[in-house]
Amino acid sequence: MSHRIFATAVLVLGFSAGTFAAEVRGDAAAGAAKAAACSGCHGLNGNSTSPEWPVIAGQNANYLLDQVRIIKLGGRSAPKMVPVVKDLSDQDLADIGAFFATQTPTGNEADPAYWKAGQKLYRYGDAARGIPACSTCHGPVGRGNPAAGYPALQAQHSGYTVRQLEGYANGTRYAKDAAGKPQSANATIMATVAARLSAEDRRNLASYIQGLR
Q1: Fewest C-beta atoms under 10 Å: which of 111, 165, 194, 209?
Q2: Which residue segment(s) compose the domain that 167 sits in?
Q3: Nearest CA-CA partner of 157 in 209, 80, 213
Q4: Which residues pair with 110 in a beta bridge?
Q5: CA-to-CA distance for 194 and 189, rounded, in angstroms?
Q6: Burial of 88 per CB tally in 10 Å (0-12, 13-18, 19+)
Q7: How far is CA 25 from CA 71, 107, 130, 149, in A?
């Protein structure tokens, strides 16, 4: 029997907003029409049906702005997204981000075989291995921290989460800048944490996160 985790508090995982998010104020109403360009992969309201594409419903707008900007500038590889976003203005992106931030994430249930182990690691971490609790940044219900630019995780496809953690661990999620640093403010922190996770840890965490609401 599948399990869905409900909670009432708020918090997040591991990226921070850059300056871009503060430069443009998005309008969710205007973004509703513009978001049609995203619906082919992410769904009409940001709830994608395939783990190939992340759930972005309920994602905080600052994080979406920064990530799309990084993709446009070549700092994160997303070949299928580039043709869609390359001609969108900063205002377009801000409006789209504002729209998706107002949507409600839905999705699959947590895998009953793995979510309890994932819950323990998510909530408490593993001090012996230097792994902090994910809830410290991403919060007990995985809703993120808009003020800090930390992303929401709730209802995310487990397969997608596993791939992103692997990308952090092996250093392929972001390209490096001229100084050799990943082009996302908190990427180094996430890379350190992800490298300490075993394949089983990633699977367990991803299952738990998929069931968070």
Answers
A1: 111
A2: 115-211
A3: 209
A4: 3
A5: 9
A6: middle
A7: 20, 29, 38, 15
Domain count across the chain: 2
User: Residue with structure tokens 């801000």?
Assistant: 94
Q: Would 161 be classed as within a structural domain?
A: yes
Select from 160, 31, 138, 141 the least CA-distant residue to 91: 31
The one-letter code for the residue type at 16 is S
Q: Which amino acid is at 62?
A: N
pLDDT string in tens for the chain (213-residue length): 344 443 322 223 333 334 445 578 999 999 999 999 999 999 989 999 999 999 999 999 999 999 999 999 899 989 999 999 999 999 999 999 999 999 999 988 999 999 999 999 999 999 999 999 999 999 999 999 888 878 999 999 999 999 999 999 999 999 888 777 777 877 888 999 999 999 999 999 999 999 999
Q: How many Å from the N-terminal Cα to the C-terminal Cα in the chain? A: 17
